[in-house]
Write a structure and sequence with these properties.
alpha+beta; Arc Repressor Mutant, subunit A; five-stranded antiparallel sheet; SH3 type barrels; about 25% strand
């Protein structure tokens, strides 16, 4: 902290609030005093001021912290920031296939706090749409457990029903990040798997009976999920990088070129008004279903293995329509 920030009580209160929130195991007053350059008596008064402001501060064994379950943050948005949030809410509604009460509560709070009645009304409608969907209570419980574990740096034990298995198996993971898929209504946890002693990705919809353990972990300083997933088509980063080349017909070329599907994509126009796209991906497993969605308007040029997989799907589809 700079001397100017230390001298400002308002800035100091914000700094202490963040420190208390981001230390789920608690932090001592002497450490706060050392970091701010203030005496302990001042820090005690600052903590009391936070409590007067409604911040849910707890004290135990000489340490202070913030109750994250009851903590409410304050965000001020201008009109353009508000519409950006509305777009995010609409994407969430399109992407979600269930009623998540936390999503509904968040949207309702945002809507009630917005001064612009038009956008607030539409946010309320988005919330109502999500409420109309069925609730999977087991999934919500799993998501809550992983969210708390990720925030508090706690290891999670869970039963996992992997694809292709006849029964679930017991697993543990240290959550490094929670992520959602771009192409399906699914959420994932990426973290350290002690069984494999490596990073692994687990789909939360396949998790059963998640329990947060007392074991604490640290996320490596060099872990960057966005770099890790930069080459992936979705959420899975397979070993190595492969070049995928696709040829699209003139019927869909314009639609294809309207979007940036992947950061590596290179588009070339063809004489027949079609187009060819080249992509460098960390695997081909996830892009296959996207390719199939274009039907007969796309041809896989490379790699050969992916071309054969798509061709086999096409042959099977022909068999369904004799």
């Amino acid at each position: 902290m700079s001397d100017e920030r230390i001298a400002s009580k308002a800035a100091r209160l914000r700094w202490i609030e963040r420190k208390l929130y981001n230390n789920p195991q608690g932090i001592r007053v002497v450490d706060l005093a050392a970091s701010t350059g203030m005496d302990r008596r001042t820090i005690y008064r600052d903590i009391a001021s936070l409590e007067d402001l409604g911040i849910p501060v707890w004290q135990m064994d000489g340490k202070f912290g913030i109750n994250r379950e009851d903590y409410l943050s304050t965000v001020r948005l201008n009109l353009n920031q508000t519409i950006a949030l509305f777009f995010a809410a609409r994407l969430l509604a399109h992407h979600s296939d269930e009623h998540n009460p936390h999503v509904v509560a968040a949207l309702d709070k945002i809507a009630s706090s917005l001064p612009d009645e038009t956008i607030a009304a539409h946010l309320t409608r988005v919330s109502e749409q999500i409420q109309e969907r069925p609730t999977r209570r087991e999934y919500i419980s799993v998501l809550e457990t992983f969210t708390r574990a990720w925030a508090d740096r706690r290891v999670v034990q869970f039963s996992y029903w992997a694809s292709g298995r006849d029964e679930p198996e017991e697993r543990t993971v240290a959550p490094y990040v929670l992520e959602v898929s771009r192409f399906e209504p699914a959420s994932y946890v990426i973290g350290h798997d002690p069984l494999r002693n490596a990073l692994r990705t687990f789909k939360l919809e396949r998790v059963q009976h998640a329990t947060m353990l007392d074991e604490i972990y640290e996320i490596p300083a060099d872990f960057d999920p966005y770099t890790l997933l930069a080459d992936s088509w979705g959420i899975m980063d397979e070993a190595g990088t492969v070049e995928v080349r696709l040829r699209f017909t003139a019927a869909v070329a314009r639609r294809v070129k309207e979007s940036l599907w992947h950061r590596s994509q290179v588009v070339a126009d063809l004489p027949d008004s079609g187009c060819e796209i080249s992509l460098k991906l960390g695997g081909t497993r996830e892009i296959r279903s996207w390719i199939l969605g274009w039907g007969a308007d796309v041809e896989v040029l490379a790699p050969a293995a992916l071309r054969e997989e798509v061709a086999e799907h096409a042959r099977r589809m022909v068999g369904l329509y004799p």
